[in-house]
Amino acid sequence: MTILEQLADYARERTEQGKRKRSLEELKKQALSLPDKKFEFENAIKRPGLSFICECKKASPSRGIIVHDFPYVQIAKEYEAAGAECISVLTEPKWFLGSNEYLKRIAGAVSVPCLRKDFTVDEYMIYEARVLGASAVLLICSILSERQINEYISICDEMGLSALVEAHDEREVTMAVQAGARLIGINNRNLKDFTVDTHNSFRFREMIPGDILFVSESGISTGHDVKKLREIGADAVLIGETLMRAEHKGAKLAGLRGVI
Ligand SMILES: O=P(O)(O)OC[C@@H](O)[C@@H](O)c1c[nH]c2ccccc12
């Protein structure tokens, strides 16, 4: 079994556990009673200029523990103060050492829109994301069908949540477009073997129609990488490890933006 299949299986297991504590019906009712998120995540990315989605991530299956000290709310506030347009929060507990609690606390502490970074495999996780305060969810093409993606986008639409649809190859980009994605993330990391190739973003750029927002994800570590992505018209970059390892996150972000 690939790591991706294990991650998806474990997400299904977590969902079943969640449902035992709180039924889908109950969770859905709460989520739908909360204020509409008005697509604030994609609207933040739509504004002119390249947007930065800065990620709070303690560990990953490819890197192991990235930082031992993880004051996640403080990190998120630092990102916000440094001008991050959006924040991504890992909630996957086993391999990424994330937590729903982190998302809830961060979303409550910052005013920029937050993405729930997890392996969405059930509508339950989308309602849960809204209840936790997220403005967006991740939909990974390689663990979902086109129909599921389409259905999950409709669920997001009801709550004004944005769906970042992640693709890694040609087939998946086509799938994302056909499923009606308005926001596509090209993952430069292959989640099956962890190889990173930032050229992935360049390779698939032209497959993405102009009216769909384009996010380049993973392995972005220098101002040069960012400059290249800006040149091909990326709407946003999603950066985790580079920022997590930086002692001064504000300065690092400014350097990546090319303003210092
Ligand atoms: O830490 P990096 O290389 O900057 O990558 C961030 C982000 O793209 C990565 O965490 C990611 C991209 N797609 C995912 C899917 C699940 C979990 C994590 C991810």
TrEMBL record:
Record GO terms (molecular function): indole-3-glycerol-phosphate synthase activity
Pathway(s): Amino-acid biosynthesis; L-tryptophan biosynthesis; L-tryptophan from chorismate: step 4/5
Pfam family, one: IGPS
E.C. code: 4.1.1.48
Alphabetic keyword roster: Amino-acid biosynthesis, Aromatic amino acid biosynthesis, Decarboxylase, Lyase, Tryptophan biosynthesis
Domain Indole-3-glycerol phosphate synthase as annotated: residue spans: 4-252
Catalytic activity: 1-(2-carboxyphenylamino)-1-deoxy-D-ribulose 5-phosphate + H(+) = (1S,2R)-1-C-(indol-3-yl)glycerol 3-phosphate + CO2 + H2O
Family in the record: Belongs to the TrpC family.
Protein origin, superkingdom: Bacteria
Entries under NCBIfam families matching the protein: PRK00278.2-4 (NF001377)
Name of the protein in its database record: Indole-3-glycerol phosphate synthase
Record flagged with keyword Cell division: no
